Structures are given as C-alpha cells and as structure tokens.
Amino acid sequence: MTSEEGRGADAAAIDVAYVARLARIDLTPEEQARFQRQLDEVVAYVRKIREPDTSGIEPTAHAVAVRNVFRDDAPRPGLDRGEVMANAPAVVQGLFRVPQIVE
Amino acid sequence: MAEPVNRALPTAHAALARLRRGECSSEELVRDVLGRIRATDGGIGAYLWVDEEDALGQARAADARRAAGNEGRLLGVPVAVKDVLNVRGQPCTCASRILRGYVAPYDATAVARLRAEGAVFAGRTNMDEFAMGSTTENSAVQVTRNPRDPERVPGGSSGGAAACVAAGEAVVALGTDTGGSIRQPAAFCGCVGLKPSYGRVSRYGLTAFASSLDQIGTLSADVRDAALMLQVMAGADCMDSTCLDAPVPDYGAALRDDLRGMKLGIPREYFVGGLAPEVETPVRAAIEQCRALGAEVAELSLPHTEYAIATYYVIAAAEASANLARFDGVRYGRRARAESDPMTMYCRTRAEGFGAEVKRRVILGTYVLSSGYYDAYYLTAQRVRTLIRRDFEKAFAHCDALLAPVAPSLPWRLGEAADDPLKMYLGDIYTVTANLAGICGMSVPCGSSADGLPVGLQILGPALGEEKVLRVGHAYEASASRPAAGP
Amino acid sequence: MDYIPSIGLEVHVQLRTRSKLFCGCGTRYGAEPNSQVCPVCLGYPGTLPVVNREAVRLTVVTGLMVGSEISPYSKFDRKSYFYPDMPKNFQISQYDRPLCLGGAVAIDVEGASRPIPLKRIHLEEDTAKNTHFEGFSGVDFNRAGVPLMEIVSEPEMHSPEEAFAFLQALKEILLYAGVSDCNLEQGNVRCDVNCSVRPAGSKALGVKTEIKNRNTFREVLHALRHEIARQVGVLEAGGAVGQETLRWDVAAGVTVGMRSKEYAHDYRYFPEPDLLPVALPRAWVEDWRAALPEPPRARRARLAREYGLPEYDAGVLTADPRSADFFEAAARLSPNPKAVSNWIMTEMQRLLAERSLAPSDARITPRALADLVALVDGGTLGSTGAREVFAVLFAEGGDPARIVAERGMAQVSDAGEMGALADRVIAENEAAAADYRKGKQAALQRLVGQVMRLSGGRANPRVVAGLLRERLK
Asked: Would you identify the CATH topology of the domain B12-305+384-481?
C-alpha cells in the first residue's frame, strides 16, 4: 500500500502538454491537440476502475506471489568495451558523449 | 463442420522427424523457408530482417552437430523471432525508429534455450511498435498483411509472427503477449498462439512493454509445436526474479485425443454485447465439439470482466512509461540532432523516435503515475486487478479450463481502426484478463466466417496449467482436422 | 537574535560487495571507463534486475547496529527522472517500504552523549559518473548499479560540529560492521545535507535548503557553517529563505543554486514490477544479529574498564576496529595493557600514517608486541632499542627475543662486567665523583652516561646507577 501525501487527489483532466514534458517528448501543436482529444476520451473511460468496491482489497503488483528472490554476490564477466561503444550514438575518450550537463 | 486445420503448413515436429530420419537436412529445410520468404513475403511483409547467409550457416552447424551424434530437441529447426526479443548479433528494433542501429549483444534466455537445443534463428518479424497495438499497423517500418486476406490486418502486436507462420514462411515463431498480442493475431491469421502463465518463461531479453503482464510465447501451425517449444523455454532463470522455480511437466504427454473427465467453463461475460455473430457461431460450435469429445461444459461468471480494459490500460501504460524511459539516445539506438543540452536531446530524440501510439501510451502512463493521481489510477487499478484475479481463482476451483472467443470481431480492414485508440483498446476485452490474472491462454483455429476469415477459440487455464490448455487445444484440433464422420 | 539551526543528513554509503546491486559486474574503483558494464547496468532493452543478497544483508546489519526496526515486508520502487547518468532513466530505490526504520546514532557533544534519531535506511543503485568537457560531457557507467545504502537522519543536529560528529560516529559504525570501506576519496560516502534556522524560542522549523552530494566530512562542516550564516543573514535583513537545492563550491567557499534542479521533480514512484518483495525470514535476521560486532561506543567503554585504559586511549584505539582488534589480541597476552596501548597509539599509528598503510598491512603480530612489552618490562630492552625492534617487527615481522639476540641488543645487567666499567669511570672522572659525594645528584647521571657510552649502549642504566651509588658511598 502506498500512502504519500497528496497522491490520492481526485483525478482531474489530463494536461497533455505538461505530461509530455515530464515524459520528455516534444509534441507538435497538431499532435498535442489530437492526443489531448484522444487521451481525454481514454482517461474518461479508464475512470471505470473506480466503479467496483475495492475497499479492503489488496493491490496486485505482481502476477506471482513469490518473495525473497536473490542472487549470490558473485562477479560475472560483463560486455566487451568495443561492443558497448559500438552501440553508442556518440563517444568521447571511452565515454558516452552527451550534451553538456549543467549541475 | 470445421475445415482441416493448417494441413498444408510445415510443423516443427514433422520437420524434426524428417531430420532425424535423414530425409532432409537442416540446410534444405532452411533453404525452403528462405525460398518461401522470397516468394511470398513481398506481398505480406511479415519479416523486418532476414540474414540468409547467417541462417544457412546456423543450419549447416546444426547438420554437423547431428552428424556428430549430438541431438537437440529442436536441432536444425528454423524459428522466426518477434523483433522485441534480443538475439545476439542481430538487430532488435521493436519496429521502432528509436532503436535503429542497435545490435543486441546478448541472447534472451528463451532464445538461448532454443539455441542450445539447436534452433536456427533466420529472421525477425514485424510488430506494433514496442508491442503496443492490435493490428501491427503501429510498426514504424512496414505494413503486414493478413495471409488469409491481404486487405485485412494480421492482428497484433505479434502480427508478423502470426502472418509468417500462417503463410508457411516460418516453421514456428516466437511472439510476446502483454494483453493478447499472441492469441489475437493467431486467431486473425488462423494459427495456434500460446501465451504461457506469467513466470513460466523467463522474460530476460524481452524488451519490456509492461513488466507485470508480458510473457513470451509461440505462434505455430499446431498445438504439438506449441508444447514442444514451451518444453524447451519454460523453467526458472537466475536472470529473471519473476520467473517461477516450478517443475516443468512433460507437455507432450498431456496431448490426448479426448477430453473425458475435463470440466470446461464458459464465461457468460465473454458472449455479450459486442461479440460479432460471425465469431460467436464457430466458437459455439467448437464448444459443442469439446462436449462431444467428453468434456463436461458449464456456464459460469467472471463478474469483473467489464473493468478489465480500463484496469489493463492504466497498469500497462504506467509500466510502459517507465520501461520506455531508457530510450533516450545516450547508450544505444538513434539520437536526434540536438546537442544544446540533455533535456532538448531527450525531447527531440523521443519525439522523432516514437510513433503516435507509443507517445500516447507513454503520456497516459506518465499521467497516471504523476503526483496527485497515483492512488486514483495506478493503485486503484491494482486493486481491481486483484478482483479480476480472484474471479479466475474461483472459476478454476470448479473447472479445468475456460472456453471463449479471442476477439469480438473478425480481422479488421487495414486502416479501419487507425487513430481511434479507444476503439482499438476495446477489442482487447477477451484477452487482457489472462495477463492481468497471470494465467495461461491459447488461441486455436476454430473454423472460418462465411468470407473465409479465420476465427480462434480461446482456451484459458489456471496459472501453470499449460498442460490442461494444451490438452484441450490438441484434442479439439485433432477432432477438427479429422474428416467428418459420415457416409 | 539567536538562531537555532536544524540539520538533517542523507548519507549515501557504497556497500562492500564484490558485484553490483542488480547484476554481476564488478565494483572495483578506478577501472577503465565503461569496462565494468553489462546489458543490465547499461539499461539495455530486455534486461532485468536481480537483487544481490549480500547488499540486503549489509543494509540490515547496519540497521541492527544502530537499533533500527528491520521491516518484515520491504520492496523496491522505481523513481523516475531523466539524467544522462541514469541508465534506465529511473532509479531502483525504496520508497515507502525501506529495509530498516528508525534507530539512532549517538554522538558526543561537549562531554555528553546524545542520540541522533534516524528516519530510515534503504537500498538503491548508484548512478554513473559524468565527466565535463568544454561544451559537452561524457558518461562512464562503471559506477552505475553499485549498491548504495541511504541513511536518513531526522533534522535533529543543531550545529555543523554535531553534523560532523554524526558523520564520524556513523563512519565508525560502518567500519565496525564491515559494511563499507568508507573510503571518502573514492566517494564511498556521500552526503546530502538539509538545513534550516529558526529564531530561539520559536517551535516551527524554518524553511530548509538542501546541499547536494558532499564527499568529505570537512566539506559538510564548512558548507554548513557558510549556509547557516547565510540563512541567518537573510533573516536578519528581514528577508525569507527560499526552499532550494544548493551546491557547495569548494573553491569559492560558498553555496550556489543548482540549475539542473530547475525542473520541478515528479518522481512517479511505483513498485518495481521486475523485483519481488523482500520479507526476510526471522531466522536470517537473528543469525545476522548474533554475528554483529560490538558497537564502537560499547567497545570503548569496555576497553577502558577491562584493561584499565584511560578514556583517551580507548577512544583512539576504537576509532578503527582493526586497531582495537589488534590491541585486544596483544593485551590478552600481556600483563601491561597500557604499554601495549602506548605502542599502538604512538609507534604503530606513526608508521602506518607515514606509509599510508592499513593496520592489517603491518607484519607485527599481537604476540610479538606482547613479547616486546615483556622484554622492556623485564629490563632486557631499553626504550631506544625497543623502538628499533618494533620497527623491524612492523616491517618484517618475527620474534622480538630472536631479533634482540641476533642483533646483540640485549641490555647488559651483569654486575661483574658493569662493576669493572663503573670503577674505571670513577677513576677517570674524579671531579664528578667528588661532586656526587657532596650531594650533587646530577653528577651521578653524568657518570651513568659515561658507563653507558663505554658499554656501547648495552648497559642497563638502572643497574649501572646502583653500582655507582654503592661505590661512591
């Protein structure tokens, strides 16, 4: 069960522009309008989940009821560096090159 | 009534028998499949990628292994792989632009197990991008046509896998099923589609869509091949915490020709409202056939079925939004030209790399997890999921398996449901429940509509109850392909 | 007006495991960039995490050491945010069900002990390391997925010095429990500090700021001193402290706002579907509890009590459990624990520091140290000789008695040989002998010195003094 303050607020309309930014996806104005319309409809539909009485019902987070699955602390060989860097879109001095990170 | 099922299609077990008797070599078998792909795939578009030379090399290695007296349960059999599963040295794009250029450096566990038994990996099949869709029209690469009617969709998301099996362009294919993505295309294309129980087959190497719902399964010409493939793939894996450490029974031994002593349930909620008569008629006939094979058949209720689609789309989208966050153009795949700062790089890379359906679901999933909405959507959906799971637990307390339709309608025409996401989602009503409950399910061809379009019979079994599902499927299939008794 | 600071710490500790938290990659520091990576810790498509049991054990052991409640049910969650050092753009962490809850770390402030309560201890994966170039950055994923334990305190420290004491006490506990190497230079311990000030007499806490990612305890101390003064300055000037995330600029000695935190965060926590919950069997936890080492504070008190050591000695010896272990092993073999303690606190610490060695690197055994103390107490070795022998034992090991014998270092106490030398010295130093007879005690020391010189330093000075006194009566 999760009980974080403010997380149980009543569902309001989806703000596609804001959520797309959270999800790191640029949308064209056309996409934004279309997705807003489509997702308004989908969100309205999925609110159906609030119809059945779920008080006292435990949430199902996993389809299997197993606990305590661990691995031993044993090192295993990883990937060859050449193979790793061959998949990288951009490389600098053995590092994955990215735009400047500002801290 | 029912017409012969897939009599013309190649099967793995028949191919293995010929290989073992020395009637053909793996190289010949693979050449046949490659020839068939060349001849017909231009009009179907099932495959995204085929490496003929590499496939023939694997086939020759299999022949050498057999010559050395080293058998394998799938030695020399070509297996088509859905583009969502990692095969070492091959691309794995999930039919998305964002994974263009990525070469898998490892084998999925299921692939590794098949490889160890001698399977040959010849090509990769089309799908809805990241397995999100029911028509394969969401592929960023190409359209796949239904081999039974090229104006219709093959279903999805494992549409390429179903189409290649149905067209004889593969002996057997791997698919994945998150909400029906194996069973529905199997029904649409007229082949067998098995979705094992959650935790039966390791998900390691399956590019995750919805982690708590995804399973690897097969598309095949018949039930025996489904059993054969499952036998090799099933079982605990130290790379997947959610893969169950449960004994793997002898699935082949479960295949019998009758259903005596079996109790089969017919869920009332799967035969209401939107079910098309062209689908209902053959499914009802198949149920009668099962009764004739000795099964006890009774109606029952799965009362929370009507909430399944809403529950599924909340959970699947939420998990997908996190699973797909890793596609950012930093470590692999395609990056947009945007070097000013990381934020811009992410937003452009993902805008250019994802198609519309993926964007919609990632946005939906991000929304239902975002601050203020978690309890109202995700947590509530998990509670309803419990109710749906309990419905099945109660049902399986009384019966061995359930019989139902796979999809409410016949295969759609290409483009028919494009850009109406909700309409598309509602088509998953009979399949998402198995994923939510973690149980197993299979689609078996059960005849055709008046237009000759295939219809599937869905057989649902309890968690780890694959033997029961395979037994029902096999007995039905065997009876349906026997020439009708008569004068 | 007086202001009371309230300081809370979030301490990230790299656990001492051989492999990463969710995959089998090694955790060695300083390896070639991107050489300790695999599909899992690079966030490749299709990969799944599997929890390292040892990381769970080390976290629970830490909890047991500080008196936390070990959760009967714990789970992992995904914490989503995009950053180039995040392979999956979510971090696997623990949100509402951490492995350990509560507990406290005791600190000594102005002679009194005070427990600083903890909120929780949880387990999570580390991020990759960014390197900055002119106009772009580079990422090394070797560190990505290394197990980190996060220890969160309540905001109940009231001065930078208390925060410093907390970190030192915590480090001692972590070293004792063997859960981390606590190598600060390698970033094994990293701190986020939150801090607010309120006027004395006011109950409500002030607006807090957070200072990210400090690697050394000194930096925490300096950053807090600066930040508290800054906040007090803002309030004194009639302003308001803004809630913000800051970075400590070491060179400039000031706290500055972090630009990367401009985007409001919405971490979208949800249970990690790829990992199953943890419900540790009671028997495991009890086994781990039974194997716990004695906590440093308890050991300090016991060393003082059991071995009659001054508090100061006990404090120095217990700062590193390896020193305390060595002490106890030697002290059990010696009737003179204080002498054993002196050797460890002075010569041993000096030689270790000079050579930047760990206590385990020294070749000397506890038995050898106890024997050395016995040789000194028995009069066989003088202080100079003993230091010489210690240096040999430290560098090469061996048996002190044998070293003394082989090098002819034993003090000469033989009355015949020494008597002859005493007679000679008295005859050659009549003036000094006369001075002593007149009552000048210092003159005797001059004569002793002469005998020592003639013996080549081997004479036992006490014996010599006795012989001289007899002859000069």
From this structure: Amidase signature (AS) enzymes (3.90.1300)
pLDDT of amino acid C260: 53
B158: preceding bond cis by omega (within 30 degrees): no
Residues with Cβ within 8 Å of C218's Cβ and at least 6 positions away in sequence, in order, are none
| C133 contact B CB<8A | no
Q: Where are the beta strands (DSSP E) in B307-453?
A: 401-405, 440-448
Q: Which one of C56, C133, C271 has the shortest CB-CB distance to A92? A: C133
**B157 catalytic per annotation:** yes
User: Which residues of chain C from 242 to 301 reach within 8 Å of chain B, CB to CB?
Assistant: 263, 266, 268-270, 273-276
Q: Which positions in chain C touch B374 (Cβ < 8 Å)?
A: 268-270
Selecting from B105, B322, B330 the residue whose C-beta is nearest the C-beta of C78 gives: B322
CB–CB of A73 and C19 under 8 A? yes
Render pLDDT for C42-97 as a digit per residue (tens, 0 to 9): 999 999 999 999 999 999 999 999 999 999 999 999 999 999 999 999 999 999 99
Q: For the sheet containing A91-92, what is the strand order?
A: A91-92, A95-99, C136-140, C129-132
In the numeric block, which tokens belong to residue A89? 């879109």
Can you give the C-alpha Rg of chain A in angstroms?
22
pLDDT over 80 (residue C254): yes
DSSP 8-state assignment for residue C7: E
Domains of chain A (ranges; CATH) run: 11-51 (1.10.20)
- Written as one letter, the residue type at B450 is A
Catalytic residue among B181, B202, B220, B321: B181
pLDDT digits (tens, 9 = 90+) for A23-33: 999 999 999 99
Tally helices (H) and strands (E) across chain A. Answer: 3, 3
Distinct helix (H) and strand (E) counts, chain C = 16, 16
- In C283-411 the beta strands, taken as DSSP E runs, fall at none
Mean pLDDT, rounded, for C383-401: 89
Q: How far apart are CA B254 and CA B51, in angstroms?
A: 36
C-alpha to C-alpha distance for C146 and C131, rounded to whole angstroms: 18
Question: Which residue is associated with the tokens 């049991």?
Answer: C53
Considering only alpha carbons, which residue of chain A is nearest residue B105? Answer: A83
Which long-range contacts does B333-337 make (Cβ < 8 Å, 24+ apart)?
Answer: B333/A87, B333/A89, B333/B98, B333/B99, B333/B100, B333/B101, B333/B102, B334/A89, B334/B97, B334/B98, B334/B99, B334/B100, B334/B101, B335/A89, B335/A90
Terminal-to-terminal C-alpha distance of chain B: 15
What CA–CA distance (Å, rounded) separates C110 from C121? Answer: 28
Closest CA to A68 of C60, B219, B168, C129: C60
Other Cβ atoms closer than 10 A to B225: 28
Q: Residue C246: closest CA among chain A residues belongs to which residue?
A: A103
Single out the catalytic residue among B25, B134, B157, B409: B157
Q: Which domains does chain C have, with CATH numbers?
A: 3-285 (no CATH), 294-406 (no CATH), 415-471 (1.10.10.410)
Known catalytic residue: B197? no
| First CA to last CA distance, chain C | 75
Query: What is residue C345's DSSP assignment?
Result: I
Provide the angle, in degrees to the nearest 10, between the axes of the packed helices C282-290 and C53-65: 60
Tokens 């010849």, residue? B122
Q: Which residue has the tokens 């005596």?
A: B260
3-state secondary structure of B15: helix
Going by DSSP bridges, is the β-strand pair A95-99/C136-140 parallel, antiparallel, or unpaired? antiparallel
- The SS3 assignment for B346 reads helix
Q: How far apart are CA B6 and CA B9, in angstroms?
A: 5
Distance CA B18, CA B106 (A): 31
Q: Is B82 a catalytic residue?
A: yes
- Tokens standing for C259? 């630009």
Distance CA B418, CA B415 (A): 5
